[in-house]
Amino acid sequence: MLTEERVHSRPITPPRPALPLDGLADAVVVDRVSKVFVRKPLVRLPWRRAEEPGKAKQKEVRAIDDVAFAVRRNEIFGVLGANGSGKSTLIRMMSTLLIPDRGRIRVFGLDVRRDEREVKKLINRVSVEASFFKKLSPMENLLYALRLYGRGGSSLRGEIVAILGELGVKAERVNQPLEQLSRGMQQKVAIARALLASPVLLLLDEPTTGLDPRSKKDVQGFVHRLRDEHDATIILCTHDMAEAEELCDRIAVIDKGRLVALDTVDGLKRSVGLQMGDLDPSLEDVFIYLTGRSLEDEEDEDDE
Fold first, then answer.
1. Domains contained in the chain, CATH given
2. What is the pTM (predicted TM-score) of this model?
């Protein structure tokens, strides 16, 4: 039996599921995927005047429009888009939470629609809004969640303390009710939950929102470690340009549901900089040039 000291000193290497096709070069293939949401009109109240005949009663919102790309195995792949661009809809389809209307998404050769159960065994997702049992402690939440992934054993408590410590959660906080912890601390617990499940595909949807600069660096370091030590593939949606530059091997820019650019950070700066007449543009300059808006711009769309 491992002592807690030994658990703390060794690398955290939880068991990982076997890949269905280990020889695949691509972890995720998004093949001409589209997703449309239909907004129904509000129920007409008695004191509101009737709509004119022929007026549209429903509105279609094309959240994702014929998007295609591949994410290489062991890659950290960034998805940049303003609010309402469709990037969160894309992540939800990859994680089997939404079904594409058209096209296919494959995760290590498995179709997210046909092979939903097998895909779920390979992925974990961290979103900007973490879901927990708030009356329970981080330790209790993580022990419960990891049992759902078939993880248990006497060493698990030590691993939980170790990984939370690396993310900046002090030992005395581990057994406090989550409702007593800050939103940033709760987000760290969500990240720990995903990492301890040892996913081969980790989907991060704005994972560091609400974290202080030190905590962001802790999380970013752990993302690199997960990729480098555990052969994980990571897809990151972020508003943080510095984070995208720090972490991502390649970046896809999504605007109004369409893929408008895909390259490395340096490749985007070089190619778009030539179009802009700027030899040294920032990534934010590149994004604004490609989309005509900043990451903080709001759009009235069914996403984010």
1. 4-10+26-40+59-291 (3.40.50.300)
2. 0.79
